[in-house]
Amino acid sequence: MPRRDDLEKILLLGSGPIVIGQACEFDYSGCQGAKSLKQEGYEVVLVNSNPATIMTDPELADRTYVEPLERRTVAKILERERPDAVLPTLGGQTALNLALELHEDGVLSRLGIELIGASPEAIKKAEDRRLFKEAMDKIGLESPRSDYAYSVEDARRIVERTGYPAILRPSFTLGGAGGGIVTKASELDEKVSWALRCSPTGEVLVEESLIGWKEYELEVIRDRADNFIVVCSIENIDPMGVHTGDSITVAPAMTLTDREFQRLRTAARAIMTEIGVETGGSNVQFAVNPADGRFVVIEMNPRVSRSSALASKATGYPIAKIASKLAVGYRLDELRNDITHTSAAFEPTIDYVVVKWPRFAFEKFPGADPRLGTQMKSVGEAMSIGRTFPEALQKAARSLETGREGLVSLRARVDYRELAASMVPAARDLGTEAPSAPAAPKHLPPATDDETREALAKLIGVATAERLFHVADAMRLGMSQAEVHERTRIDPWFLAQLDRILDAERDIPRLATSTGDARVELLRGLKRLGFSDRQLLAGGGTHGKTELDVHEERRGLGVEPVYGRVDTCAAEFVAHTPYLYGTYESEHEIAPTIRRKIVILGGGPNRIGQGIEFDYCCVHAAMALRELGVETLMVNCNPETVSTDFDTSDRLFFEPLTFEDVLAICEREKPEGVIVQFGGQTPLKLAVPLARAGVRVLGTSEDAIDRAEDRERFDQLLTKLDLLRPRGGIAKSEVEALEVARGIGFPVLVRPSYVLGGRAMMICHDEEEFAAYMHLAREAAREAGTQTVLIDEFLRDATEVDVDCLCDGRRVVIGGVMQHIEEAGVHSGDSTSVLPPHTLPIRTVERIEEATRRLALELGVRGLMNVQFAVKDDRVYVSEVNPRASRTVPFVSKATGRPLAKLAARIIAGMTLDELDCHDLSWPRHVAVKESVFPFAKFPGVDTILGPEMRSTGEVMGIASTFERALGKALLASGMSLPRNGKALISVKDADKADAVKLGRRLRNLGLDIMATGGTADALDHSRVPCERINKVAEGSPHVVDVLRKGEISLVVNTTVGAKSIRDSYAMRRQALLASVPYFTTMSAALAGVAALEAEDGEPQVMSLQEWAARG
Amino acid sequence: MSGERAHLCLADGTVLPGWAFGAKGSTTGEAVFTTGLTGYEEVLTDPSFRGQIVAMTTPHIGNTGVNGDDTEAATDAPHVAGFVARDASPVTSSWRSKEPLDAYLARHGVVGITGVDTRKLTRHLRDHGAQNAAIGTDAPDVLVRRAREARDMSGLDLVREVTPTEPHVFTESRGVWAPTPPAPQTRHVVAVDFGAKRNILRCLVDAGCKVTVVPATTSAEAILELAPDGVFLSNGPGDPAAVTYGIETVRALLGKKPLFGICLGHQLLALALGATTYKLKFGHRGINQPVLDLSTGKIEITTQNHGFAVELHSLGGKAETTHVHLNDRTSEGLAAKSLDAFSVQYHPEAAAGPHDSLYLFERFTAAMDRA
Predict the structure, then answer these.
(1) Is residue A686's pLDDT more than 60?
(2) CA distance A227 to A333
(3) Position B154 in a domain
């Protein structure tokens, strides 16, 4: 059964914006899918609203629609394109749900389009928990005791059988959204009703708790001839109860005998056959009772998933690529394993250990429950490869870039007494009571060992982002492995491995005093267990004073990593692809080449502020350099990405992005230099240390980077160029900070130095707020390794502008100028950007471009640079200069049809803009709008108001011939469906009252009725805009939350200023989110939204990027 | 890692350091690697590994201890001549474990080595071929010499070391691990034990056979006297060409009773049919080996453990090739339809490995029921 020749054109669905539970992995799978289908000669049409993806690069498909992944829009695209088939299994839950919708409303059958990869029946059987449970019963496999609730009453009845704790799993939600654990009867009502609301079908599975059972995942593939393979087995270190996306996981499974493992394999096979997945990859999750081996089936996903990406990277087996070939008719035995050139029909086997460690962003969501549960909360992950579990675990810890250089002790950084106390669940109504401001540390007298041990004993029973560190600290204080196991249910095998690490840690001081062979052996032993040079330094294991000293000492002793291959076969066959990892073994497997070569440093794990956009840039850099004939060496540790696909670069080093690990690669490979400007802040931070260690930083110099990053040098730069910036100063103490703030005058913008994504950035309106906030800023600064806090004048109501440019040191080309819709005060990463600027006068744009050029030339930028400006009262202020690729590069590239990152890479490799024939573009015929997407729904109890700290996880793009239409598309793509009828609830701050009147009028013209609170209602009344008056929450029932809860409201516009008002209006915003009512928290966005609504006229209009580009 | 320094030395002079584990002392044997991620207990006790020093490519070994139930030997004793691991586990974690691996090896006198760069070893054996090796705590040059002096596997009949001395009836079932309840015992199978893996015998029992196990040297007449419905030819260690008595027995049985052979049994059947065998460079050892069933076009992921193979073209018209290895297209199965004999090179009983090929036991019972 080879390639299907009855198909000619295939439409591939992407997964949309990056959200918690759906990240870069679907760009990775989508890219592999698009590439392999094209390779097979099919015409490929692709739909994805996320411009930051590689898959939406115009070269990858015949036509690429950056359009909302929404039923009506996609139906329109299907009508326009008339593909023979739709492939939804590479686009995550979004694509799968969308495909089902298109099937169910008859679009597919009407147009004669086939769903390939998974049939609607198979999707339903796997996704509908009731059908799935029935299917499991039929093949004699156990699933947890459970039943469906459609009401709180149902749930109460079911819990009588499952007992407490019971797990809630709403049907058809992403990343387990709305799910949770009910531990006692008093929590049942609230948690069940939230879960019911989250499920699009109003259905919640109430399930027996398997907390403490071991959790396994099998990544499997089946073809239409019933050939079946297991690509990878994964064991969760965190036992059942923590979402697998939030668990630290290990591949291969570590604590099963063959008989036990084969039982799971046979079950997985039976499940694939029963569900009817015929052509592709799936994942099956099991829970195993450690006491007797009883196992139950938890769930299966009939599609490529996050775990598939992990399994692909962990084994080298390209699941998405193979899955897409199976979807078009091939059988496994007809396909080839690219790495070994043997058959693709085999089960990969590995001779190393892979650890995945999730990365969280709780610090950005004050009020969020830090406890992990069945709803995924992590925003990214790092993967590491080592020859043993301890080595891989410590490498993973340092790959996360959370300031943990391994399995380090946190005692010096955390007061465990306070941390344990903070784990007590909030005694507030998460839907209506605002989170309290984070308390200042109490500065208790130092904890005794006993106090710490007592706190840790409580703490390790709670699954949190840093539990493994807490466990290690408990063990350092003498807690037995048996007790730790009792409290955490972490398998004793893993605890014994932690113990090995801790044992070795105690040997570190001995390193400094030992000599000769004993020293070499001790050092090698430590490195083999994954200890970083920084850990050795901190542990007093060296003579030197710096990390570089440790490095040099170690090299002097000949203790250096070698690079082993990821080859799918544990060295049984010769591997043909250079996918490498560093480890302290005895031989290198691959000799450095003598070609011209350049190292590209990736962005590491996804986090808020640094995500797929930077991977996009790294991948483009690799492509551009390969086109120039330069050998590219990619370093990254994020398994979700395209950059860690083994054929993106000439050599892939799956390694942590730390000084130590990168330097080792450079010493081995001796490249011409490293590129630090594409991976975000992560590699940028390495520029200076690498340069000091003798590695050449290509492109913009490390000194220029420092001039832009260092506050004082930056001020000098602006002064020299006679450019304006908001008045500001730096402070190293709270007293000093207050002086600076008083000098500037409130409001001020405060932030720690050297942080990304506006971490701990805040606008303080008065001294009281300032005083309350300073400790947070200083703490965040300390985490970032600095003392410095920056205080700036806050330019109220200023318009913000982002510019990306290219510079070759001689000439500057403007890539794009983006105007933000939200005024200053909302982080640039969270705001809505418009390209070209929709209201700025052309003269202002020219001044901005001119300032950009001068900055780039003065800094001697070679490659990309991003500048953020604020425009107020016709004055242009420079807020920030980033001498690197920015978050907006992919958006600008898609909007203008010009691949900025590729051009930048060529400049870095020595070409000039003239040679590249690169010049400023004329004003385009279309407008592109970038809208941000937020994870608030995943964090109950968190305020949704936007501010200077970035909190969005992803972005979408709308492209159209007018601003309003482009915005409408962007809003729709972000999941905001604006209403044309019903009631709009308006409650705004005084400064916005005049605009509220305009807004009210226009909404009424569109057919909406208006409801407003106190002052806003007065203003509307005064201007004769009819409105219904409603109480604020503090004014008593019936109030805004009541009407929202009753479902009377279809749109909310709420703007507010000052900490107290923000707290008071929290309930309105949170309820809007809970009730899935679209809401705006800035007036500028609301007005723009209304304009978009006015411009909408029924039918969605769609056009591919290729067509937009052809129009110019 | 700590303990006593030990080395693994190959006959070609390659020396790999590690630490002693298991029994004290030193040992020699042919160094081979196996790539299964699970199943070290099965590997240790598999009689086909007789005389070999086995390296597991998966780094962490011993995690689940030894439980005795998963043994492939007639007793729970290991058959390997030595055992090589990258990282022997400091603890045991399994509700079924009865003994830590280290203690088990020590109790049975099996010398092991841990902390070895097993990837280097594997790559070396892959590139330079399987060869003799020695492990122990003696000086490396002593070990290299011992490796060179060790007996050569080619032409060596190791079957005599592992075959039982007396016939006996085998009744053990896979019990809770069987995918389906055992079938009623309506056929009688004589299993010629060249070093049979215990799970093959369990699978025969579960497929509905009364199983009489006989020594490898049992003559065809003696076997036929037991009045079997079918004769099973087991796996076993070493060079098939050296098992001349086995080939003779098979030749004498051909056409008289349905025959089913596994691994060495496959090779003996081929030799009895007049085909030839040869030694592979480094053998197939692992539990992820893809085999194509030529009659159905389906793939089985199989367990394999063999250093010798049947020369595909030497079968001529004597038998039909039913299965081939997808990677190197070597012989994986044959059938002589007119003689009611078939065999596979791989291990359908798995242990360790995937259970894709259990259907072959039913094919054997069906053949007996037809005969």
Answers:
(1) yes
(2) 9
(3) no
Query: Is A237 in contact with A248 (CB distance < 8 Å)?
Result: yes
Residue A261: closest CA among chain B residues belongs to which residue? B38
Same domain, B142 and B176: no
Domain count, chain B: 2
Identify the CATH number of the domain in which residue B66 sits: 3.50.30.20
Give the C-alpha separation, B56 to B113, whole Å.
11
Q: Which residues 339-368 of B are in CB contact (within 8 Å) with A?
A: 350-356
Q: Which two tokens stand for residue B358?
A: 């259990």
Beta bridge partners of A299: A285
> What's the rounded Cα separation, in Å, for the pair B312 and B324?
9
What is the average pLDDT across A810-817? 97
pLDDT tens profile A1030-1066 = 999 989 989 999 999 889 999 999 999 888 889 899 9
ipTM for this prediction? 0.97
- State how beta strands A597-601 and A631-636 pair: parallel
Nearest CA in chain B to A263: B177
Which of B28, B182, B184 minimizes the C-alpha distance to B113?
B28
Are the C-beta atoms of A947 and A905 separated by less than 8 Å? no
What does the pLDDT read at residue B1? Answer: 46
* Same-domain pairing of B47 and B123: yes
Residue B35 to residue A349, Cβ atoms within 8 A: yes
Instruction: Report the C-alpha gap between A842 and A887 in whole angstroms.
Output: 24
Cα A1035 to Cα A1055: distance, rounded to the nearest angstrom:
18
- For residue A388, give how far its alpha carbon lies from the nearest alpha carbon of chain B (Å): 6
* Residue among B42, B300, B332, B349 flagged as catalytic: B349
Judge whether B204 and B245 are in contact, CB under 8 Å. Answer: no
Same domain, B124 and B163: no
pLDDT digits (tens, 9 = 90+) for B265-292: 999 999 999 999 999 987 899 999 999 9
Residues B141 and B190 in one domain: no
User: Could you tell me if B170 and B215 lie in one domain?
Assistant: yes
User: How many CB atoms sit inside 10 A of residue A554's CB?
Assistant: 23
3-state secondary structure of A726: coil
Domain termination site, one of B130, B149, B168:
B149
Same-domain pairing of B214 and B334: yes
Helices (H), chain B: 40-45, 101-107, 118-128, 140-149, 159-162, 198-206, 220-225, 244-253, 264-272, 359-370
Most confident of A745-749, A788-792, A891-895: A891-895
Best CA proximity match to A754, nearest among A782, A716, A776, A796: A782
Asked whether the beta carbons of residue A252 and residue B288 sit closer than 8 angstroms, the reply is: no
Closest to B36 (Cα-Cα) out of B310, B289, B343: B289
Does B293 reach chain A within 8 Å, measured CB to CB? no
| pLDDT score of A784 more than 80 | no
Residue of A nearest to B298 (CA): A227
**Residue written as tokens 């928290």?**
A1081
- CATH number, domain at B255? 3.40.50.880
Q: Are residues B135 and B203 in the same domain?
A: no
- Chain B nearest CA to A264, separation (Å): 10
* Chain A residues lying within 8 Å of B8, measured CB to CB: none
Q: What percent of chain A has pLDDT over 70?
A: 99
Distance from CA of A205 to the nearest CA of B (A): 30
Please, what sign has the CA dihedral across residues A900, A905, A908, A911?
negative
- Looking at B149, B175, B196, the residue that finishes a domain is B149
Q: Which of A496, A572, A1051 is nearest to B92 (CA)?
A: A496
- Contact between chains at A572 and B35 (C-beta distance less than 8 A): yes
* Residue B72: inside a domain: yes
Spatial contact of A633 and A600, defined as CB atoms under 8 Å apart:
yes
Annotated active-site residue B203? The verdict is no
Same domain membership, residue B104 and residue B126: yes
Give me the domain span that covers residue B352: 159-370
Residue A686, strand partner residues:
none
